[in-house]
Every structure is written in structure tokens, then in C-alpha cells.
Amino acid sequence: MTDKNFDVIVIGAGHAGCEAALAAARLGCRTLLLATNLDTVAFLACNPSIGGTAKGQIVKEIDALGGEMAINADKSLLQMRMLNRGKGPAVFSPRAQVDKNAYHVNMKRTVERTPNLLLRQGEATEIVINDDKTFSVTTAVQLTYTCKAAVVCCGVYLNSRTLVGQCVRESGPNGFANAKYLTQSLIKLGFNVARFKTGTPARVRLDSIDLSKMVEQSGEEDVQPFSYMSGSVPTAKRHCYLTYSTAETKRIILENKHLAPIYNGSINGVGPRYCPSIEDKIVRFADKERHQIFLEPESEDTCEFYVQGASSSMPASVQEQIYRSIEGLENVEIMRDAYAIEYDCIDATQLDATLMAKHVKGLFFAGQINGTSGYEEAAGQGIVAGINAERYVHGKTPFTLRRDNSYIGVLIDDITTKESVEPYRMMTSRAEHRLILRQDNADLRLTELGRQIGLVSDERYDKYLRKARQISIGQKQLKTVLSPKIYGPLFERKNEAITGAGLTLDEALRRPNITARDLQELGYFEGIDCDALYQIELECKYRGYIEKEKEAIRQADKLENKTLPQDIDYLKIDGLRIEARQKLNKIRPQNLGQAGRILGVSPADIQILIVYLAQNIHNE
Amino acid sequence: MNNTIVALSTARGRAAIAVVRMSGDNAIEIAKKIFHPFPTQPNLLKPGVLETKHFNEHAMCVYFAAPHSYTGENTVEFHCHGGTAVSQAVIEACLDNGAVMAQNGEFSKRAFINGKQNLTNAEGIIEMIEAETASAAKAGANLLENKLGKRIVELQNVLLDAVSACEAALDYPEEDLELPTVQTVKEQLRTVAESLNALIATSALGKVAKYGIDVAIVGKPNVGKSSLLNALIGTDRAIVSDIRGTTRDTLTESVNYRDIRFNFVDTAGLRESSDEIEKEGIRRAKKAADSADVVLHVTDDPNDRSVYPTIRPQVRIYNKCDLFDSKPCCVDSLVVSAKYGDVEIVKETLYEMFSADEIGSSDLLITNERHLDCLKRAEKQLAEAIADCDKTTLDVVTNQIKQAWQTLGEITGNSAQEDVIDRIYSKFCLGK
Questions:
Q1: Superfamily of domain B5-117
Q2: Degrees (nearest 5) of the Cα angle B314, B316, B322?
Q3: Do B393 and A93 touch (CB under 8 A)?
Q4: A374 → chain B, closest CA residue
Q5: Residues of B in contact with A290 (CB under 8 A)
Q6: Residues B170-194: pLDDT tens digits?
Q7: Do A276 and B416 touch (CB under 8 A)?
Q8: Domain map (residue ranges) of chain A
């Protein structure tokens, strides 16, 4: 073995690439992590924030599997909040503001200190499949490395262009160099390439902002950090600020609409509906008076603030006018312009559930190159691709996550099943079993899997076992009966009706205002930590709904377990609508469940497939 | 390649003609071997000779070329003489030349696979085939026209609005959205629940349209129950005599009246008896009364005020009015003479009692058990969701509404997660 031969090469050191490389290296693969520029390692190119609805759940899942994102975010935390309090535990979502510089430095340090992992600057220009099924990866400086498995995580860098009005640059995000050659190599390998776009707002000087006109948003002290390993972390170091656009903002945008690349035809890429530029919002939702704008700190090292909700591709001079029309930003100084960015990505339906290309064994893809958006979505794919690259190299069975055990499972199933027509963002509404996929039980759902894979340390595993054991001990006490004398004062204080008869702990917990901690104060659930207590409480309060959800999973499994033969010629099944036939032929789903999730395949088409399958078995 | 299936398409047994149908890639080829002269063009019924192993059958033949047939495949029909032996021989001839016997419902399944019909269409066709009355056939035709499907989609859209508002609130907590209030969500759910209840309520009438009205004729021995049955159906079906206890077992006979159907059940006369067989007959009479839609309580005593003990609605009938000296004591009863008179008044009364006249004017009746089941489940899920609005969190409520929406989708075969997401984006202004 020479110094240029690796088990796994990961191309790109963003959020997907770091997770993939760390997973592969920690599982024992000699791994090379290539980055076009080492200053871009885990760079937060857009907002200085990790988590949010559905994304916070993904971060917790990565942590439970033994990944790095949660730990790194906790190390770099500026503030943390729990979104959706009051809307129900299924949608509680932790969201953090993180220090962008610290995030990069911390991740880079972790990567550098990981055994088996070599971080190397270099722009990958070509991937070649060798006769012995290994890959050769060549970089721009004409160095060639070989590997048994490669993971492509080049984010938004492929042939990217940034746009500020008429100023179009061949560039990656934040002025970093783009990658000009790899797209051609991927096309040669048989990948379909699409063009997506996204955008980012300007960064402005803190001391040019009139904070007195804004609403301060501070972190919440009682939120737990992302990682189960982080212990206690200060969660309210810095504030964010809320303000609004004005009628003047609207006027300026409508007047200058023709200058926006998105409206004058100079952008070809498809942008996400959920992350529209400020001009997009104003044009599409013309009757809305004002739009929310948040100011978020970029780092402790700088006075730059991120202007959330105001991404734009207008000319810089117009951007200035737009920003200065926002309440409190009348005298704002822009430090970096807002821009739109267009980039190449591949059609992720060419991948299987391990994120390996169906037609090139050993070649994996993760992150925005797969048409997703978001750091968390990228990292979630990264860890799965990294794990599977290792398993491929060592001849182990593939590792896949499911729609009923994780958001990452939902994400990967969605992108490999449905052709993305816009950048894919995770949302809780995409997870049909979200009552079960909660941020509070990611460890219970996935630690065991992470342990089997080999990424979960003894310490993490012990924590998990301890929690699971405590839950089971607590659940055994639920039948304990409380006399009215014992629970009376508590119930009175909490406005719960007292029946006069005895109540079991279970019945008490089903009262909306009674928590497990209340009962612990009465002397029950002794020695059980609050994490475990919370699980016991939720199980009681939501038992009926959770049972229903489990039943729904069993129902869905019926279709998931109906395998579709891989040699079906869907084009010949005339009952299927033409679109369905073409989609099925292209994506070749594994089972009826997956078939049903393909866009363009309707439930009626699935009924036809069910009858067709039964019929064919009968005919044989 | 589809194998070719064959089956008898008309009812088994004695009949003037029988139709044997064959469908599949080789249907025409096989038919050409056994039928001469084979029609020169599709869709035309032509006479000729069909060779079977045992005899030559003078029959008629028509073929339909794919995809312009019921199944969407090449299809041939032989119209031959009725009766078991002839059709059997014709089927054998087809089998000998390469066709296989069709499974139950296989013609329709093929039509389904080949895109000739969707689920509700298929259900409509079945209902039309099974229809015994004009109103049952109309209900089937309505399904074929997809009237129910359109109504369901309207209701689903209201739910979709509610769901997407909730989902947007759940997924975009930091957006400045107009959040759905418990009150508005409840209002939307209530409208849908009311509409579902109205649809479910039509199933009573739907049952009348589809199956008719089950009418049990009960009363003491010898009051003329069997005579009444005979008069109602217009034939001497039941044995009539002066001997008490002539009718022992129940006897069901159906008759169409206007556009619906009555299923009359004659029963044994009710009295104390030690005869084991008669006792069993009386037990069956009570059972028939309890499962009927309505009970005709027959008496021949004008002073009889007794009420038959049943939870079912009942109509008292004073029979043998030709023998009465006085007017019957209860006015809200029917007075007839089954032996001599006209009993149409009985049918007319029952017809009105079940508002069967509304069947003709009603646009949409639920006649299908599966649809009724879906509607009831969706209604229950909505009721739960409405109750949940006050006692639990939005995440759970949203799931409940989604479930109801999906249940409704089972009727039409259309429920998709993606609809919600599209709706969220089209209705709300969302940033990141």
C-alpha cells in the first residue's frame, strides 16, 4: 500500500463530507478527505444556525448514531431555543445559533485529530473506475489517489455561479473557488445533472443597527444541548433581534423587480419554495403588509450579523436601499452583499437507500449534490454514506434507516424515490410517523443501531442503557395507587379535578397538568433522571396516539414487505398512467411502499400493481 | 403476453341464449379455429357454425379488437343456445385450443389493469350488474359517473386546508404566519363532519334502493297473513287454509313496486304451542320480525289494540274487513281484505314510510358497504379530532385530521402526503 491508496476517499469537507469521513475513519477505513480549500471545512455558508423544525431532530439522530454535528454545534453554541413549545412533543425542535468561526475550527480540529483520517487540500477533477473496481480520483494539481469506495459530497460547488444583480461570477459560496471539472466526470459516469439555486442574505455591521427598534430574542436557559454527550452548556450567550420590512421595502422591490436575476431570466436554476428571496416573497405574496426579519450574530470574533429573511440577488445598490427600508436598519452598513448561487446537482433517484449509485457500485453521494438543502440534511446523509462506504469496503451488509425509525430514513427514502424538482428541505410534515420520531427519543431509536455499526462509544452506550433501564423501572411503578390524601394537594395546586378515589401513577400522568417530576416530588419514581421521567410521562399522556401510530406503521409495513421483481417492464402495464409507467421504470422501487411514494405514481396505480402482482403469480 | 381466458358470461342453467366470452392475446386466433365463417370486422355480430367435440352449434360471434373492448384485450363473444350442455361444449372447444378457464372476476381485473376502469368505476359496474331495481341501477350509474368521488374530493379539500394551516404552523414556528386558531380548525372540521353525517344518513335510503325493504308479516294464527303475502306478490305462493298453524317456516318473496323492491316474509302464526316444529316456526317468526325493516302486524279482529313486541317500526293491518260489523278501533291502521280487495295501499304506505320517493330525486346515495365504512371511520376520526382540539396539542390534532383525510381518500383511491406540502407553499409566505 502506498501513501496514495485509501479505503475511502471523501470529496468535499462540508457538513456531509465531514460526517462521512469521520464515520468511515472511525470504523477503521484509511480515509482521505479532500477539500478545495481547507478554510471551507464545515463552513456555515448561509445562516449561523443549526437545528430548527425537523432539522433539530436530524441533529439528535446523527448524535445517537455516533456522528459529530451535535457535539460540534454544542462546542460552538451562542444560544439555543426550543421551537414549537406548546404545539406538542412531536414537533418540539431545538434550534441553536452557533459561532460560525468556532464551528469551522472545532470541526477541523476533530477531523485532524481522528486516526485513519487524512485531510488534504485539493479540487477533485475526475473519478475513474479502474479494472479492479477501485476508483482513481485525480485532483487539479494532477495528483491521483485510489480508493475502494468514494463518497462525493461537493455541496453547491459544482460549476457554481454567484449572482448579485448583473454581476455574475464563476464562484462557490462566500467567494471560495468553485469546482469546474467534476460535473463532466460525473456525466461520463452516467449521472443525470440538474441545476438548482439558492441564496443568502447580506451580512451587516452590528453597530449600524438600531437595536432599540427591534425585539430582543434571547436563548432559553432550560434547553438541553444537542448531544447526549455534552453535559451542561451555556445556552444564552448572545441575542438575536426581530424586526420587519416596511411598505417602503415593497415599493423599492417592485420598482426594481426587472433588475433581479430571478425575474429577468439570468438565473436558470430552480430555487426552493421554502427559502424565497425577499423580492420573491414580496412579489408572490403581494397582499402581505410586512415580512419578518431576524438578525443573528455570525461569531464572537466579528460584529457581522446575518439578516435572516432577506436573501436577495438584486444589484448591490438596490440591496442597500432594500435593507435601509427595514425597521431599525435605516443606517445599516452592509459588510458582505447578499447573493444567489446556482450549482449542479445529481438526480438522487439514481442512488439506493445506502446512498450508493445503483449503477456504480462503491460510489456514494451525500449532501447538497443530491438536491437537498440544509446543513443538517447534508450531515444526516453524510453519516449514512460514510457508514455504508466502510461496510462496502469491508464486505458487510448495507445499513439503511427507515421511515419509521428516523427523519434521516425519511429524508433518504424521499430523495432516492421522488425526483426533486427543487432543493429538498426536511419538514416534520414529511415524516408520517412524527409522533414516534421525536427529538427526545432519538437516542432510544438509534443508539442500539449505532452501537451495532461500531460508532457508539462505551460511554455513550452506557448512558443510553442507563436511560432505557430507568424508563423500564419507572414503567413498572405506574400501577402504584395514590390515595387522594397524597395526590390531593398537588392536584389542587395544578387545577386538576380530585375524584375522591385512589389513582394510579399512570392515571395521574394522563392528566394534562401533571408531570412525572411532580410525582417524583411526592416520593415516587425515586432515582430516575429527568430524561427518563419525561419518556415515562409522554408514553402515558400520548399512549393512545402512539399506539395508533404503531398500528399505522404495521399497516404501512404490508406494502413495504411486498417486493417488486426488478425485471418488471412497467411500460407494458397499460393500466398505469403513462407518467407512472415511466417513473416506475426509471426508479425501479424495491417494494410497493416505495413505489407508492414516487411522485407521479398515484394510489390508483398502486392498486393496479397489487392486482398485477397477484395476477402474475397466478399465471406462473 | 397475456394468456387467453374463457368463461360463461351469462347465468348458468336453462335460458334462451348463453354468451361465452374469451379475452386475451390469442382470443381471435382461437375463435377462428372453431367458428366459421369468422366475422370479417370487429364489433359486428355474425351467424355461423361453431365446431365442438360433440356437435356443431349454430351460433353467433362478435369480436372486439384490443384496446377497444371491456378488458382492453382482444375479446370474442359466442352467443349460443342456452343451457348447460351447449355452453359447456363451447367452453371446452376454447380450452382445447389454448384458452384457460377464467378466475372469478378476472375479466374485470384485466379491465382494471389495462386502465379500462378505476376502483369506483369497478364498484359501479358491480352494483349495476347486481341491481334488481331501477333505483339500485341508478346508484350504480352514479358511481360510474363518479358523483361520490367528486363530493369526497370537495370534502378532502376542506380538510387539506385545515391540515396545511396546521402543518405550516408546526413546521414554521418562526414565521409570521396567521396561525390557525382552535376555533377556525374546529369550524372547518365540523363542516366536513356534518357533510359526512349527511352522506352516511343517505345509506338508509341507499340500502332501500339497493336491497329493498324487508317486511315481516306477523300476527296470530289464521288472521290471513299468507293470504296477504299472496295478494301482495300477486301469486298463490303460500299455502292458505282454514287450519290454524298452516304456515310453519318463514317464506320470503320479493316484488318490485315502482322503483324499489319489497322483500315480504310470511311467518308462522303466534300462539302457545306444544308442537316442537310449530314452536321453532314461531321462534323464526320472531327473529324475522326483529331483523326486518318494518313489521306488518296483522289481525282480523276490529277490536284488537294489541302491539307486537318489537323494536322495529310496525304497521297494524286489519285484514278480512269484508267480515267486519264495526269500524276497526285504531284509526292509524290499514284496513284491507286480502282475499277480495286491493292491497296496493299496503305497498303505498310502506313506500311513503321509507320516503322511497326521495330515492328518485336524491342525487347521491351511499349504497356500497366499503364506502359507508370509510365514511363512518372518517367521521369518527374527525369527531376525535374535534374533541382533541380542546384537550391535546396541535401535533396530535393534525395527525388525526390527516388520518380522516386519508380515510376519505380510500374511497377514491387518492391520498398523498405531497398534497399537503404543495398546499403549504401555495398558501403561505415562508422564509427560512
A1: Probable tRNA modification gtpase trme; domain 1 (3.30.1360.120)
A2: 155
A3: no
A4: B432
A5: 176
A6: 888 877 777 777 788 899 999 999 9
A7: no
A8: 203-342, 458-548, 561-619
Give the chain B residue nearest A569 (alpha carbons): B1
Q: With contact defined as beta carbons under 8 Å apart, do A113 and A26 qualify?
A: no
Q: Which residue of A has its CA nearest to B167?
A: A429
A343 phi and psi angles, rounded to 5 deg: -155, 165
From the list A274, A418, A435, which residue is nearest B425 (CB)? A274
Instruction: Read off the pLDDT of each residue in A234-240 and give the average, rounded to a whole number.
Output: 93
Please tell me which of A265-274, A591-600, B144-153, B239-248 the model is most confident about, judged by mean pLDDT: A591-600
pLDDT at B177: 72
CA–CA separation, A20 and A147 (whole Å):
15
Most confident of A218-222, A572-576, B110-114: A218-222
Question: Could you say which of 1.10.150.570, 3.40.190.10, 1.10.10.10, 2.130.10.10 is the CATH number of the domain covering A561-619?
Answer: 1.10.150.570
Taking the C-alpha atoms of residue B398 and residue B420, their distance in angstroms, rounded to an integer, is 11
CATH architecture of A203-342: Beta Barrel (2.40)
Report pLDDT digits (tens) over A105-158.
999 999 999 999 999 999 999 999 999 999 999 999 999 999 999 999 999 999
Which residue type sits at B223?
Answer: V
The reply to whether residue B391 touches residue A608, judged by beta carbons under 8 angstroms, is: no
A8-56 confidence digits (pLDDT tens): 999 999 999 999 999 999 999 999 999 999 999 999 999 999 999 999 9
| Chain B residues touching residue A84 (CB < 8 angstroms) | 170, 173
Q: What confidence score (pLDDT) does residue A136 get?
A: 98
Return the CATH number of A458-548, one of 1.10.10.10, 3.40.50.2300, 1.10.10.1800, 3.30.420.270. 1.10.10.1800
How far away is chain B from the Cα of A252, in angstroms, using its nearest Cα?
19
- Look at residue A560 in the predicted model and tell me its pLDDT: 84
Superfamily name and number for B211-360: P-loop containing nucleotide triphosphate hydrolases (3.40.50.300)
What average pLDDT does the segment A582-608 reach?
84
Q: Highest-confidence range of A88-92, A149-153, A277-281, A492-496, by mean pLDDT? A: A149-153
Asked casually if ipTM beats, i.e. exceeds, 0.85, the reply is: no
Could you confirm whether domain B147-206+366-427 is CATH 3.30.420.10? no
Q: Do B176 and A292 touch (CB under 8 A)?
A: yes
**CB–CB of B429 and A429 under 8 A?**
no
Instruction: Nearest chain B residue to A217 by CA: give it.
Output: B174
pTM, to two decimals: 0.82
Substitution target from A80, A84, A419 for chain B, most B beta carbons within 10 A: A84
Both ends of chain A: CA-CA distance in Å? Answer: 52
Q: Using a CB-CB distance cutoff of 8 angstroms, which residues of chain A are in contact with residue B174?
A: 52, 83, 292, 294
- For residue B176, the chain A residue with the least C-alpha distance is A292
Q: According to the model, what pLDDT value does residue A268 have? A: 73
Note the pLDDT of residue A620: 45
From the list A275, A608, A611, which residue is nearest B432 (CB)?
A275
Nine-digit cell at A452?
A: 451495532
For residue A62, give how far its alpha carbon lies from the nearest alpha carbon of chain B (Å).
20
Domain boundaries, chain B: 5-117, 147-206+366-427, 211-360
B174 and A294 within 8 Å at the Cβ level: the answer is yes
Low-confidence ranges of chain B (pLDDT < 70): 1, 104, 117-122, 144, 413-432
The shortest C-alpha distance from B98 to chain A (Å) reads 14
Do the domains A561-619 and A458-548 match in fold? no
In angstroms, what separates the C-alpha of A281 from chain B's closest C-alpha? 7
User: How near does any CA of chain B get to the CA of A188, in Å?
Assistant: 33
For the segment A570-590, the average pLDDT, to the nearest whole number, is 86
Cβ contacts (< 8 Å) between A244 and chain B: which residues? 176
Q: Nearest chain B Cα to A608, which residue?
A: B113
